[in-house]
Write a structure and sequence with these properties.
By secondary structure, the chain is mainly alpha-helical. The chain contains 31 helices and 19 strands. The longest helix is centred in the middle third of the chain and has 17 residues, at 196-212.
Length: 607
């Protein structure tokens, strides 16, 4: 063992330590020292096990300490560093990396030392001085030995100039995580579950995607760009799957309005390509699964499509076009119905994803539809009761056009829904062989009891009536027979307050707007509905408190009522409101009409 003994600095690399021994013991450069002690120079430069073992014997430094600060070859272009396997690309080689401020301190003590951290590509900032490290390209053949005394010629003022040129910056949390992990300290759970190289690659590529987009060419990125990408990416990967999903889904949103059908490779580019590698040295880790899940949750693909090495067992999403083909429907009509059903936005691009179940449900409804115009005839209803059924939400119309759109109309209704309604009504009835005195059709009974026909329907569904019959061989509401006197007895209970149609007439709004206001309750601009529950405990009759409706009418107003109040055309009302930049408290896009606070409107605006 060499004397005097020179202790091994725990921050120093074995190669730098050997160079220091050469200067002290033979007063010459590293290569001669290594050959004098039968250490193959190239083996030492590569941190091979035999070279490290011999250096430990010669120097007296513990072999374990030397190995801890070196990336030891473990296979072809693979290295082992403190229990972690990394590829050659993980290391800074062939570049020589150093901190000019650290070298300036070393110069004052007499010997420059190469820190083991500088050998890692992810280490780009000096943790002591918080300035960017200098990255020096490989020059002469002996640069591989990283002899900082010789390959970094700057001294004194020149070295100080490098320090002053460096813009101060903190160490990125990404770099800190890597060093802490190599020191055996636990970090974020998801990152710790990946190999070190997988964690670094996922973090930096995600950062590049977020910061620069998929069009960025990786070779064009500077060292500082990669440092910034690590900072950005770590903000997501440190949060685990939730954070990564947030970043990936935000990237999808950037392509929401893209023309055509952008694929996963176009949207994610290098992150997608890195996740598709099958080489064992490039296994992407869990980010490939997360990316695959996000892709399959956002891009419509047929069953059997391979996504990052895994085949889709079944289709998860449709586009309008693919759903129309599958269901043999006209794509334009299907699109209109999907918009009306709220499954897709009105201006959805062609690639907008539609959940398979929702899409097929809407398509099935289209195939089962009965046109509203012929509903009374096709389903054995009376003409007046059709609108009342829709008004009280006993039937749900399929619309053309979104809320507030001019020409929005009820085009059809699901015949399955009609069948369920008729089935409930018939379930309450006893079969009757022939007409009987005292029993009359629903419409006639409503007329005699002076209530709307829909009220009679509610009484039947709610279990209020005991005498309900159905003529044998007939179907629909027209087949039902009831006792008008029994209806009169329940009139006070079932007709308390205002009906939907009466509330609509009072407020001068459509029934759809009324229900939009009900659905918003208890928001400021909303309406409360009083539900009357029948004896069966299941069916509910919607009624409105006249005082509540009057109060709403007093506090809120819409253009049609403004026009009526001031005898001004609606178009002129709308123009003046826009001109004065009066904003509605509830918009047309939300419920189909703009509502304003009455107290906010000055009368002189319309006079």
């Amino acid at each position: 063992m060499l004397t005097p003994h020179i202790p091994f600095d725990p921050e120093e690399s074995p190669l730098s330590y050997a160079a220091g021994l050469a200067g002290v013991h033979i007063g010459d450069r590293l290569v001669r020292f290594l050959r004098d002690f039968e250490i193959e120079p190239q083996d030492m430069a590569a941190n091979k096990e035999g070279a490290l073992r011999r250096l430990a014997e010669v120097s007296g430094a513990p072999l374990g300490d030397l190995r801890a600060n070196a990336a030891v070859p473990f296979g072809e272009r693979t290295y082992e560093l403190r229990g972690e396997l990394v590829a050659a690309e993980f290391l800074a080689s062939p570049y020589t990396v150093f901190c000019p401020a650290c070298l300036a301190e070393d110069d004052r003590t007499g010997r420059r030392r190469g820190r083991w951290e500088w050998s890692l590509a992810v280490v780009r900032t000096c943790s002591r001085h918080e300035i960017p490290l200098v990255r020096q390209a490989k020059g002469p053949w002996d640069d591989a030995f990283r002899e900082l005394e010789y390959i970094v010629p700057e001294r004194d003022e020149n070295l100080q100039a490098l320090i002053e040129k460096a813009a101060p910056r903190s160490v990125s949390p990404h770099q800190e995580y890597v060093i802490r992990r190599l020191d055996g300290k636990a970090g974020p759970e998801w990152l710790d579950a990946q190999s070190l190289e997988q964690a670094v690659r996922a973090t930096e590529l995600l950062g590049v995607l977020v910061e620069h987009g998929p069009g960025q060419k990786l070779p064009d990125l500077t060292w500082d760009d990669w440092d910034h990408a690590g900072r950005v990416g770590f903000g997501f990967t440190s949060l685990g799957e939730d954070g990564i999903r947030e970043a990936l889904e935000a990237q999808f949103r950037k392509f929401d309005d893209a023309s055509g059908t952008p694929g996963a490779r176009k949207i994610f580019r290098y992150l997608y390509e890195a996740s598709a590698y099958s080489d064992s040295h490039k296994e992407p880790g869990d980010i490939a699964r997360i990316l695959r899940d996000v892709i399959t949750e956002n891009i419509a693909m047929p069953a059997g499509t391979t996504v990052l090495g895994v085949k889709l067992r079944e289709r998860r999403l449709h586009t309008v076009a693919s759903l129309a083909r599958e269901q043999s429907l006209d794509s334009r009509t299907l699109r209109a119905v999907l918009v009306a059903a709220g499954v897709i936005p009105e201006k959805a691009p062609a690639h907008f994803p539609i959940p398979v179940d929702k899409g097929r449900e809407v398509a099935a409804r289209m195939k089962r539809t009965v046109k509203v115009a012929s509903l009374w005839k096709d389903s054995n209803f009376t003409r007046p009761i059709v609108d009342q059924l829709f008004a009280d939400r006993l039937l749900t119309p399929i619309y053309k056009g979104r809320p507030g759109t001019k020409g929005r109309t009820q085009k059809a209704v699901d015949c399955k829904e009609i069948a369920m309604l008729v089935g409930k009504l018939h379930a309450k009835a006893v079969e009757l062989g022939a007409e009987t005195d005292g029993l009359v059709p629903v419409s006639k009974a409503a007329e005699k009891a002076k209530v709307p026909a829909i009220t009679v329907v509610h009484m039947i569904l709610g279990g209020f009536l005991e005498c309900v019959f159905r003529l044998a061989g007939q179907d629909g509401i027209v087949a039902l027979r009831v006792d008008p006197e029994e209806i009169k007895r329940h009139r006070a209970t079932c007709a308390k307050g205002l009906s939907v149609m009466e509330a609509v007439a009072s407020l001068k709004i459509s029934k759809n707007i009324l229900w939009g206001l009900v659905d918003r309750y208890p928001e400021e601009v909303s309406l409360a509905v009083n539900w009357i529950v029948g004896p069966d405990g299941e069916h509910r009759i919607p009624r409105f408190d006249a005082a509540v409706v009057a109060d709403f009418k007093d506090r809120f107003i819409h253009p049609a009522r403004i026009a009526e109040k001031y005898d001004v055309p609606i178009r002129e009302v709308v123009r003046r409101l826009k001109q004065q930049r009066v904003r509605p408290v509830l918009s047309k896009a939300e419920v189909g009409e703009n509502f304003y606070r009455t107290r906010d409107l000055k009368p002189e605006l319309f006079i």
